[in-house]
Amino acid sequence: MVGKNCFAIASDRRLGVQLQTIATDFQRVFKIHDKLYIGLSGLGTDAQTLYQRLVFRHKLYQLREERDMKPETFASLVSAILYEKRFGPYFCQPVIAGLGEDNKPFICTMDCIGAKELAKDFVVSGTASESLYGACESMYKPNMEPEELFETVSQALMSSVDRDCLSGWGGYVLIV
Amino acid sequence: MGDSQYSFSLTTFSPSGKLVQIEHALTAVGSGQTSLGIKASNGVVIATEKKLPSILVDETSVQKIQALTPNIGVVYSGMGPDFRVLVRKSRKQAQQYYRLYKEHIPVTQLVRETAAVMQEFTQSGGVRPFGVSLLIAGYDDNGPQLYQVDPSGSYFSWKASAMGKNVSNAKTFLEKRYTEDMELDDAIHTAILTLKEGYEGQISSNNIEIGVIRSDREFRVLSPAEIKDFLEEVE
């Protein structure tokens, strides 16, 4: 979710196989660099592998170009990598959030084959996504300060996740 | 001495540690038409002689300065056909970068990749090095930049440089005339004067070619009419 010169990215902590809970501390939001984070919902193994591939590409980019990737550039890269596997895709929906030039927040999401979806306010993905859309839509206000943004994101996450049996076991909220 | 015995194969070092084919490639460059580039504070200018073998050649069909991307241009000294191949490869690489990152390729990255292509041809079987040196001029987020790429694949960033026939005189002239805070129009005048120094015959708007890139980041080759205006200002 976008705030005033800041963004929030949040996820729940459950890893499960249908009704069985495997872990309650599963990390789904990953750091690419100080001002760029990616959240990957969907299949656990694909989330981890995709993250490793993206970090690899970003590190090489940093070494070659001697700078961090801009969020928009990174989103295009993720989209290209996902589309490479068009006929045998990664079962993940990424949520990308970052601060671009002048600390302007950037968020986007895509489907598992790389269709980018930019947004100005918030993006969601996962099993509770429909519920999250509703919660965010009603709780979102433009230009929120970091503290208010944290409250809003946490409340939206908790209420949606409580209504979904496959999500839960705590939450993880990151404000940049 | 024993060097000539090692000049048959590109991929064999001579005892003095040189790859003789690359030396020969540099000689091919050194006998090509003079070209030069100057980096100003607000842009870059590249220029070359355009001496045609006969007055019957249609000079509008000859284009020695080419754009690689909207904000990067290139000029060469040496073999024209080799230049065409490199331009084609570089343009493709620039577009591949754009397709992946939806961002225009930075000048350094394009130079690096072009140099890598030139280096490949010094370490493969059955090929010869490119007989051209390139001067790549561009304007990106790091400001105006000018790079020279040699047949060996090495590249250098220059404030001002020349290549081809009259290189030592041209470089001396540039060293004297270059100032750190030169503006682009001054740089164009200096480029014309430098070309004039070594030119056999009368310089005119039809036998030189000039490419500029300003802070608007659009690489353009100047039309003969524009060159004529600059020539008049110089005289």
TrEMBL record, chain A:
Alphabetized UniProt keyword annotations: Cytoplasm, Nucleus, Proteasome
Out of the domains of life, which is the source? Answer: Eukaryota
Cross-referenced Gene3D superfamilies, in alphabetical order? Glutamine Phosphoribosylpyrophosphate, subunit 1, domain 1
Cellular component, GO, one term:
proteasome core complex, beta-subunit complex
SUPFAM superfamilies membership: N-terminal nucleophile aminohydrolases (Ntn hydrolases)
A GO BP term here is:
proteasome-mediated ubiquitin-dependent protein catabolic process
Primary location group: nucleus
Keyword Cytoplasm included in the entry's annotation: yes
Localization terms from the record: Nucleus
Function as written in the Swiss-Prot or TrEMBL entry:
Non-catalytic component of the proteasome, a multicatalytic proteinase complex which is characterized by its ability to cleave peptides with Arg, Phe, Tyr, Leu, and Glu adjacent to the leaving group at neutral or slightly basic pH. The proteasome has an ATP-dependent proteolytic activity.
Subunit structure, interactors included: The 26S proteasome consists of a 20S proteasome core and two 19S regulatory subunits. The 20S proteasome core is composed of 28 subunits that are arranged in four stacked rings, resulting in a barrel-shaped structure. The two end rings are each formed by seven alpha subunits, and the two central rings are each formed by seven beta subunits. The catalytic chamber with the active sites is on the inside of the barrel.
Give the protein name, as stated in the record: Proteasome subunit beta type 3
Which source organism?
A: Digitaria exilis
TrEMBL record, chain B:
Protein family? Belongs to the peptidase T1A family.
**Protein name, please?**
Proteasome subunit alpha type
Per UniProt, subunit arrangement is:
The 20S proteasome core is composed of 28 subunits that are arranged in four stacked rings, resulting in a barrel-shaped structure. The two end rings are each formed by seven alpha subunits, and the two central rings are each formed by seven beta subunits. The 26S proteasome consists of a 20S proteasome core and two 19S regulatory subunits. The 20S proteasome core is composed of 28 subunits that are arranged in four stacked rings, resulting in a barrel-shaped structure. The two end rings are each formed by seven alpha subunits, and the two central rings are each formed by seven beta subunits. The catalytic chamber with the active sites is on the inside of the barrel.
A GO-annotated cellular component: cytoplasm
Q: Which GO terms describe its biological process?
A: ubiquitin-dependent protein catabolic process
Recorded hits in Pfam families, A to Z, give: Proteasome, Proteasome_A_N
Highest taxon of the lineage: Eukaryota
Classification via InterPro entries:
Ntn_hydrolases_N (IPR029055), Proteasome_alpha (IPR050115), Proteasome_alpha-type (IPR023332), Proteasome_asu_N (IPR000426), Proteasome_sua/b (IPR001353)
What is its subcellular localisation? Cytoplasm; Nucleus
Identify the residues that the record assigns to the Proteasome alpha-type subunits domain, covering every copy: 6-28
Q: Please give the function described in this protein's UniProt entry.
A: The proteasome is a multicatalytic proteinase complex which is characterized by its ability to cleave peptides with Arg, Phe, Tyr, Leu, and Glu adjacent to the leaving group at neutral or slightly basic pH. The proteasome has an ATP-dependent proteolytic activity.
Q: Which UniProt keywords apply?
A: Cytoplasm, Nucleus, Proteasome
